[in-house]
Amino acid sequence: MSNTHLSKRTVAALLAAATVGSMAGFAPAATASAPSSSSPTVADSRQGNPYTEERNKRVAVHVLRQLFEEGNLKVADQYIRADYIQHNPMAPDGREAIKNFIRDWTAQFPDHVYNVKRVLAQGDLVMVHSNPVFQPGTRGSSVVDIFRFDKKGMIAEHWDVVQEVPETTVNGNDMFGTVSQPRTNQPGPRWMTPFSRTVAIAYFDTLLIDKNPDAVRYLTPEYYQHNPTIPNGSAGLREQFTNFFQQFPNLIVERKRVIAEGDLVAVHAHYRLSPEDRGQAVVDIFRVGKHGKILEHWDSVQDVPETALNENTMF
Q1: Degrees (nearest 5) of the Cα angle 116, 227, 140?
Q2: CA distance 60 to 80
Q3: Which residue, 299, 12, 288, is CA-closest to 129?
Q4: What are the pLDDT digits (tens) for 261-271?
Q5: How far apart are CA 51 and CA 304, in angstroms?
Q6: Is the pTM of this model over 0.90?
Q7: Does residue 263 contact residue 186 with C-beta atoms inside 8 Å?
């Protein structure tokens, strides 16, 4: 294993240690759709109609399950645009490319189960956090899918981050469950959304963009961690981050998009040790308490590959 690879894993571990959140299985509500009155950008999806957002959540989960579990290609024609923009480096653009991929995938993994854990929507973006298991008896992957919907309710664009689930974790928590109370996968009340978003962004930017270890003040002492390489608790993190930023002074973290709903906030970002590093695609998911402290954290981390089947980058 190279020193560069070790450094990347160190980055992923320490960056993840800064976060908190949790929830469990997902059952999307059957909410009627309504036309959206806003057109938020990809990077800033704060405006949106809650009825449309619930409809988009329901569609995103339905499409994933029908495609990967049932091999139902008709849902692609029904819900995905022909000019669909793909950011997964292993797939080309376009709806037909998805259909070709699913044909091969379901033939190879006929018993694939997607195992959706939590779903957030804000404006035109939907985030789905899942534990897809390709073959029975295996641990599967930690996957975060992000979809952008157009004004007609069609899926127009997709990003994802994929990480293998390890056999063990240092904190005793799996990568998907909820530890903090209430132990639910569902986002908290919508009135919390602006508050949670502000807290999570303040923490993320203070720590990772400003490289200020004092950001740990945003965490609760118990700080439940679902990154498999990081222990629970916020004690000692200030010293850890101080040493880390000294070791990697050229660290660059670019926040790309934020999706917040209730007490949950997902931050999609690009982490690099230096300007020359391809880096990693990371989605951190935070759970924010009503007291303004971060309670719990999940994430998925993927190395950015050297080549891709599309020209869109992972961001």
Answers
A1: 45
A2: 10
A3: 299
A4: 999 999 999 99
A5: 35
A6: no
A7: no
